[in-house]
Write a structure and sequence with these properties.
globular; transmembrane; DoxX-like protein; mainly alpha; membrane
Amino acid sequence: MKEQIYKFGNIGIAIVWIVNGLFCKLLNGVPRHGQIVARILGPTYASPLTHMIGFLEVLMAVWVLSGIKSRWCTLSQMVLVGVMNILEFFIARELLLFGPLNIVFAAIFIILLYIHGHWLSVEK
């Protein structure tokens, strides 16, 4: 049962990365993401940087689904989500979907990542 919950969690986590990377950034389905990147990293290269970030997020989904070094994968996700959301909170808060509450949703996601990657993990 634990293994099935873990696999279901992997799929859910991968979907989060695919939606944010592919739809929101690579396909520009949510232009606000590019505006956030421009605010944090500057407008000059915002478009290519947004696409690069989106591509890396899709790669994160592939890593999650692969199961390779799953604990390192979990740690990487926790750090990335934390850093991204702290930067956004202080630099681009008004561009966030839920404004300052985005940091709360990020914290919940980080906790879920921890539970998934460290309590439910089947990696020995």
